[in-house]
Prior knowledge:
Elements: H1 11-32, H2 39-70, H3 75-104, H4 109-138, H5 141-168, H6 173-181, H7 185-202
Amino acid sequence: MADTQQDIDFTIMYATHRAFRRDLRRLAAAVEAGRAGTPEVLAGWENFSRQLDNHHSVEDAALWPQVEAKIKDRPDDQRLMEAMEAEHAELGPRITAVDTALRSGADDLAARIQDLYQVMDQHFAHEEDSALPLINDVLSPAEWRTFGLANARNLGVKGVAVYIPWVADGTTAQEQREFLAAFPPPVRAANKLLWQRSYNKKRLWQV
Length: 207
């Protein structure tokens, strides 16, 4: 393990993955109900796409390089990192395919969503089952926080103000408490007083 025996808290990562899965299920339900073209569904999809692009671009820039620096003499783990990057690359064309079908009303939209969900879900499961244990083994909590800070910088204040209530959207009371507890008190206060209300007004996915 890294220079500390303290385990890394992956609560935010698991919660973020859960939010991505939730949004694609919402999109699939909207298609089945004939509501895919509504402004609220399109806004939900646009937010999903932005969040996923940010999530994976920050992993590629600020997380995987930290891990790779620690596993130069571990070929099996190097292959795992290569797989993570390859799985990220597989998602891009599928996002484009869903976006094109959604905006054109293509008959195969539901199938494209299912394909994206399957590939994304398999990637998240692979990451959760294999990459997160590796991260816990080779990075310290402080190094993990470096990744979290890079994510916040990439989002910016306005992006964070959407990201936090978006992840919390639709969660159980316990899931929401655990997720919000991972942030400092000032962030939780801002979310309660400002961000949550602003997010609710967006009515993402709702009609």
